[in-house]
């Protein structure tokens, strides 16, 4: 059976003015067209060719030698090229844009944005995109604690944190306590594996291992001092919310980094805040 959404090797069964017709075998019925503009010059009846199958603007199955940015079973970040009242259309590398129905969107999306999506076949056997990718992700990746991975945020849940697709393939979560700063759906981040759960899902952190993160945090404090004439209104008694808003880090991380800078003689901390010494 010739299926939409997949790359398949098919047999050339006949040649016409419109192009060549392909099928699984010479004896099969239901042929599909590969347009003449895409037919290699040397291709003849009886030869095989690898093509991607989808539906054209008249909902007919059609073949192409061009490769889309992803196929069924995969995820990919795609750019929104247009939006209307029933959904959006995404650039997936083929002549006809991929439809993202309104019901398959998460939040409001706009033209020009890039969103991580999966692909499914709807009731009419047409290919569509979905931002609801949780059920398309896999467990048991080959990652270990403290590995650095790339992940794309695809959903937020107040009780849990940010749900992330690691390498556009695996389940990941940034727990609420690990989220610092403002982030949005579709954003791709460099993350550290904090834990590999028994079910194979990954718990992630935006922060590096403690000693490396302390260096980054100390640098962030010094950069903030540089931008504010050597003074910051943060100190030991500052609230976690104020520290997160000003520096994008937890209070514990702030105290570790500030303590290190004090030992090095780079700063002083008073009841009014931090003062740079040099």
Question: How many individual β-strands?
Answer: 18
- Estimated structural class: mainly beta
The best one-word shape is elongated
CATH superfamily of the largest domain: Nucleic acid-binding proteins
- What's the level 1 CATH class of the largest domain? Mainly Beta
Query: Major sheet, described briefly?
Result: 5 strands, antiparallel
Name the CATH architecture of the largest domain. Answer: Beta Barrel
CATH domain topology of the largest domain: OB fold (Dihydrolipoamide Acetyltransferase, E2P)
Query: What's the tally of helices?
Result: 3
Characterise the protein shown here.
It is built from 3 helices and 18 strands. With 278 residues, the chain is mainly β. It has 4 domains: 58 residues, OB fold (Dihydrolipoamide Acetyltransferase, E2P) (Beta Barrel); 60 residues, OB fold (Dihydrolipoamide Acetyltransferase, E2P) (Beta Barrel); 68 residues, OB fold (Dihydrolipoamide Acetyltransferase, E2P) (Beta Barrel); 67 residues, Arc Repressor Mutant, subunit A (Orthogonal Bundle). Helix 1 crosses helix 3. The longest helix is centred in the last third of the chain and has 18 residues. It starts with 6 loop residues before the first strand and ends with a strand. The model has no long low-confidence stretch (mean pLDDT 89).
